[in-house]
Amino acid sequence: MSPTPARITAVDTHDIRFPTSRELDGSDAMNPDPDYSAAYVVLRTDAADGHEGHGFAFTIGRGNDVQVAAIDALRGHLLGRSVDDLCADPSTLNRDLIGDSQLRWLGPEKGVMHMAIGAVVNAVWDLAAKRAGLPLWRLLAEAEPEWLVRQIDFRYLTDALTPEEALTLLRQGGQGAEERTARLLERGYPAYTTSPGWLGYDDDKLTRLAAQAVADGFRQIKLKVGADLDDDIRRCRVARSVIGPDLRMAVDANQRWDVDEAIRWTKALAEFDPYWIEEPTSPDDILGHAAVRRAVAPVKVATGEHVQNRIVFKQLLQAGALDVVQIDAARVGGVPENLAILLLAAKFGVPVCPHAGGVGLCELVQHLSMFDYVALSGTTEDRVIEYVDHLHDHFLDPVVIREGHYTAPTAPGFSAAMRPESLARYTYPGGEFWAADLDERKKGQSA
């Protein structure tokens, strides 16, 4: 009698929130008081190896419970599935989730439901990488190009990128992969830091953290802008005086402006030589981004952390609307959709510099950039991964930054697993931290 195949036996979800708004960590012109949060999912199996799949969607506080509910709505597509089949061909799950017509109506392929699909799909890839004994970037980089292409949904893309073109890009990109893998393991992948630049920080904190970034070996920092022009001019002047003329300084408006305002404001900051202006207007405004790009050159235009799916990225690239593609590991439908976006960027010759401001995003997106370097683009020129120095201690395999570079992960998986004690402490509203916080608030109200 053949052994019973291992199955997915449980889909556990957690509403995890961190009180980052109290120190103004993560603050920007559009989001002044974010509490970095994760709608967190764990796929459990009855396999003898004991491996679990971990994934999450990133939010900034209120609404994280809505995101958890969306993940819960996918449970029926997961329970009872063969672990071997799922890990051998994750695309089968992706097609089932995207293709659920009733849930699809809530998008399609955008918003809370799509982010829920991304969290679950990423958890499957975490499980697959653990079972293969490889960090995700190596699982992807060492996979057969034909298999990778089969993982991608090319619907709505073929006017810009066909499966045949993707296969050619991967075959060409894989040449020299062994040498680049060795170089990556030795040197790491270049990073830039946003840690000095949160809008709520005063000038003393900006100065101290910018100087620390230089000392730590970063060659680029980023400042949040967009609330007050005079304040932005002062802060850019402070930052530039600290980092000197040779380091790159990007600025990020977090969608604050209309198109004409974006152009005026960016030109007003031009004296400080900003490398890029990020999210100058609505992430859905493709033609608006194109207009900004034409008007503010040589300042580059970057966007992507709120771009809903591969189709919008396709149009941004077709319209010549951006100079820098910023993928987000948890915004779109998981690893396969990000593979599609990386391939689109390679086809159009646009560098990818991922967004990673948020809980766990650094841990995830490093794998995608490292795959891109080893097996697709073959270069780190004008490519950097965002780094923020928050909340890494809550992860079992946290990012390691050395001399301004991400150290390549070596542990199997997607680096997504949070520490059990962090899950227990920061589950909302009943975790240890939040329960104690509520008690303190009640005492304050009764005093």
TrEMBL record:
What SMART domains does UniProt report for this protein, alphabetically?
Answer: MR_MLE
Which cofactor does this sequence's record say it needs?
Mg(2+)
The UniProt record lists the Mandelate racemase/muconate lactonizing enzyme C-terminal domain at 203-299
Enzyme class, UniProt record, top EC level: lyase
Q: Which UniProt keywords apply?
A: Lyase, Magnesium, Metal-binding
Q: Which reaction does it catalyse?
A: L-fuconate = 2-dehydro-3-deoxy-L-fuconate + H2O
Q: What Pfam family is a match for this entry?
A: MR_MLE_C
> Which Gene Ontology molecular function entries are recorded, alphabetically?
L-fuconate dehydratase activity; magnesium ion binding
Q: Which domain of life is it from?
A: Bacteria
Tell me which EC number(s) this protein carries.
4.2.1.68
A Gene Ontology BP annotation from the UniProt entry: carbohydrate catabolic process
Q: What is this protein called?
A: L-fuconate dehydratase
Species source reads Streptomyces viridochromogenes (strain DSM 40736 / JCM 4977 / BCRC 1201 / Tue 494)
